[in-house]
């Protein structure tokens, strides 16, 4: 895992390597294709406005943020912020339980 601001994070290449290490019967290039296909499928579904649910892990969806008037932090000048769509992730119960120390999953 890569160090980041005192914590750790996992980047795509580390995820691919971990899966490949845990599954020696698979070629790393095949694992990379699988991971990329999963991520591309999630992104594609979200781009179409669909919700993606991975039971026990969580659900990805898209939320609409209405346009508003914001402020330029340097000048304090009013700035129009356009409406936009942002990805949203809601954790599943099993993931929440595991993060909060409940190992009875």
TrEMBL record:
One GO biological process term: regulation of DNA-templated transcription
Sorted UniProt keywords: DNA recombination, DNA-binding, Transcription, Transcription regulation, Translation regulation
PROSITE patterns: HISTONE_LIKE
UniProt-recorded Gene Ontology molecular function terms: DNA binding; structural constituent of chromatin
Gene Ontology terms: cellular component: chromosome; cytosol
The UniProt record lists the keyword DNA-binding: yes
SMART domains the UniProt entry points to: BHL
Pfam families from the UniProt entry: Bac_DNA_binding
Family of the protein in this entry: Belongs to the bacterial histone-like protein family.
Annotated HAMAP family: IHF_beta (MF_00381)
Quaternary organization: Heterodimer of an alpha and a beta chain.
NCBIfam families: hip, PRK00199.1
Function text: This protein is one of the two subunits of integration host factor, a specific DNA-binding protein that functions in genetic recombination as well as in transcriptional and translational control.
The protein's name: Integration host factor subunit beta
Species: Wenxinia saemankumensis
Encoding gene, per UniProt annotation: ihfB
């Amino acid at each position: 895992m890569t160090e980041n601001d005192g914590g750790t994070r996992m980047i795509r290449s580390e995820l691919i390597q971990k899966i490949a290490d845990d599954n020696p019967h698979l070629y790393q290039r095949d694992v990379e294709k699988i991971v990329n296909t999963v991520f591309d499928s999630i992104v594609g579904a979200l781009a179409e406005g669909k919700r993606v649910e991975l039971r026990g892990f969580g659900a990805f969806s898209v939320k609409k943020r209405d346009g508003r008037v914001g402020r330029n932090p340097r000048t304090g000048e009013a700035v129009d912020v356009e409406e936009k769509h942002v990805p949203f992730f809601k954790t599943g119960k099993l993931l929440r339980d595991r993060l909060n120390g409940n190992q009875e999953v």
